[in-house]
Amino acid sequence: MSPRPEAARFFGESKFLKFIADGMLGKLTRWLRMLGQDVEYSNNMEDSQLLTIAKEDDRTLLTRDFELYQRAVSRGITAFYFEGQTGEEKLAELAQRFNIPLKIDMASSRCPKCNSVVKPIPMDEVAQKIEKNTLNHYKEFWQCPKCRQVYWQGAHWDKIRNTLRKANEIVEKSKKKE
Known about the structure:
Elements (H helix, E strand, L loop, with lengths): L17 E4 L4 H9 L3 E4 L5 H10 L3 E4 L2 H9 L4 E3 L5 H12 L20 E2 L2 H4 L5 H6 L4 E2 L6 E2 L5 H21 L1
Parallel strand pairs: 1-2, 1-3, 3-4
Antiparallel strand pairs: 5-6, 6-7
């Protein structure tokens, strides 16, 4: 039986939530940030630190560690334990549980590296920061105001769209079974 009902909390139509992810969920953290979700993450935080931050900042703890999940729930912390193995399965679980749209909207997307909301930046301001060939092929750019990383929807976006499509397919299959 799934452990999720113990930590149930209604999330309704909330589009953006606050999470903290354990060290096993670095890749998923980057996905959630691209989807606009506020996710605290460090791969060297102790369990006690994760629990303290989750409680103090009212963040939902995301984990693949069942013992950590149980400790969180016993302390009144909202937590989510992942059963899925693949990235697509984990994204689908989150979409279903927290009503998170599996679509990237650059107007609300966060930096996968540092969690700040990215901002549009004119081409002329990124010209010295990226390869000239990139400027020839792409016209829209975003930059993180904190770490200064520049983003654009390059060739890697086919893989991103494919992953989100697969996650959405899992969600749809699950809905048909209900």
